[in-house]
Design a protein that fits this description.
40% of the residues lie in helices and 21% in strands. It has 366 residues and is an alpha/beta fold. The strands form two sheets. Strands 4, 5, 6, 7, 8, 9, 10, 11 and 12 form a nine-stranded mixed beta sheet that branches. It has a three-stranded antiparallel beta sheet with strand order 1-2-3. The structure holds [(2S)-5-oxo-2,5-dihydrofuran-2-yl]acetic acid and magnesium ion. Magnesium ion binds next to loops. Belongs to the mandelate racemase/muconate lactonizing enzyme family.
Length: 366
């Protein structure tokens, strides 16, 4: 099953409701669809969402690195030679979304060829995941209203709250408004996207100590090395590394250095292959993981879901699987549907999803 082509197709779909957070905002899904074709006629898809404010990748850069570097290095390999593909792509230090989308599109092909779902091939632990919704910046009352609507409509009861603003009290007010609106049973955790200093984060944790938060993610930069270590040592809940732990080596450094005590796994930046390395590293060290969201559309969410449902540790917590709800449209033929707070892994081989050719023609860029 020789790989005959790897295409990078840029497209743009607007957001109905822009997502704002401490390190940036997203108003359009300016993503790149990656299509892997094989000699046997099987075709695999995955999505590359550039996050320039975090990793420096851009839509044009993803297209350029796939067309100019990764596709020429991989075309001609057998789809099963994944370790060789990884070796060739990982010569390049950066470009996580481009590398990951290729890795996952190849897995999509392999699942189809083997006649199994990718989720089964990766581990097959369960066929569904509980869903966590990520709430972007707004006024406290508006964020509480959004959470209430999401609960009523989709049965979702876990929320990741974006924090990291100044004054710190604004975000504290948001968490209090959410707790009041959603009650004690809702799970709430917060993500600062490095917006606070270590001491501001400590102040916020102190103010919020009675609100029942379950996780604190990337509240300050990991590069504030000693301040972050002190913060993490004082933190009573797991402190999640996200943008500081994008590779197995970074995970090792941050965990051993005491700068994180839990790990966010994002298939958009470590694909399936490196996400498994990160997962096994974390579980081997007895560290909790959460399936994160790189502000994915439905195809990216299907990848997070496939990986999350595949393993015991990744399905233990609700996965961040719902932000495609903020988009005006999507590319999949059969939309993902959140029912009773859960997403089921699509039936079928590979990723179990297909791209609607008319939608792709409509949204693709020249
Ligand atoms: C998150 O968990 O931080 C925001 C920026 C990014 O790269 O991912 C999102 C969500
Ligand atoms: Mg985060």
């Amino acid at each position: 099953m020789q790989i005959t082509a790897i295409e990078a197709i840029p497209y743009r779909i607007p957001y109905v409701k822009p997502l704002k957070f401490a390190s940036g905002q997203v108003t359009h899904a300016d993503h790149v669809l990656v299509r892997v074709q094989t000699a046997g006629g099987l075709v695999g898809y995955a999505d590359a969402p550039p996050r320039p404010f975090t990793y420096g990748e851009t839509q044009a850069g993803i297209v350029a690195v796939i067309d100019g570097v990764f596709a020429p290095a991989l075309v001609g390999l057998d789809a099963g030679e994944r370790e060789i593909a990884k070796q060739r792509m990982h010569r390049t230090v950066g470009n996580p979304a481009a590398k990951s989308a290729i890795d996952m599109a190849v897995w999509d092909v392999l699942g189809q060829a083997w006649g199994v779902s990718v989720s089964r091939a990766l581990g097959g632990f369960t066929d569904r995941m509980r869903v966590c919704h990520m709430l972007g910046f707004d006024e406290p009352a508006a964020m509480a209203r959004e959470a209430r609507e999401i609960t009523d409509r989709y049965g979702i009861s876990t929320f990741k709250v974006k924090v990291g603003r100044r004054p710190v009290e604004l975000d504290v007010e948001v968490v209090r408004a959410l707790r009041k609106t959603l009650g004690d049973k809702a799970e709430l955790y917060m993500d600062g996207n490095r917006g606070w200093t270590a001491s501001e984060a400590q102040y916020a944790l102190d103010l919020l100590s009675d609100t029942g938060l379950t996780l604190a993610e990337e509240l300050c930069p990991a590069d504030d090395v000693l301040g972050r270590r002190r913060l993490v040592a004082n933190c009573r809940m797991p402190f999640v590394g996200d943008e500081s732990v994008t590779t197995p080596a970074e995970v090792t450094r941050e965990l051993l250095g005491g700068s994180a005590t839990a790990i966010s796994i994002k298939t958009a930046r470590s694909g399936f292959t490196s996400s498994q390395e990160i997962l096994h590293l974390a579980t081997g060290l007895g560290v909790e993981v959460v399936m994160g969201n790189q502000i994915d559309g439905q195809l990216g969410t299907a990848c997070t879901l496939a990986f999350g449902a595949a393993h015991e540790a990744t399905s233990a917590r609700a996965g961040e699987l719902s932000n495609f709800l903020d988009m005006a449209d999507d590319l999949l033929t059969e939309p993902l549907r959140i029912v009773d707070g859960e997403l089921a892994v699509p039936a079928g081989t590979g990723l179990g999803v297909s791209v609607d050719p008319d939608k792709l023609a409509h949204y693709r860029l020249a």
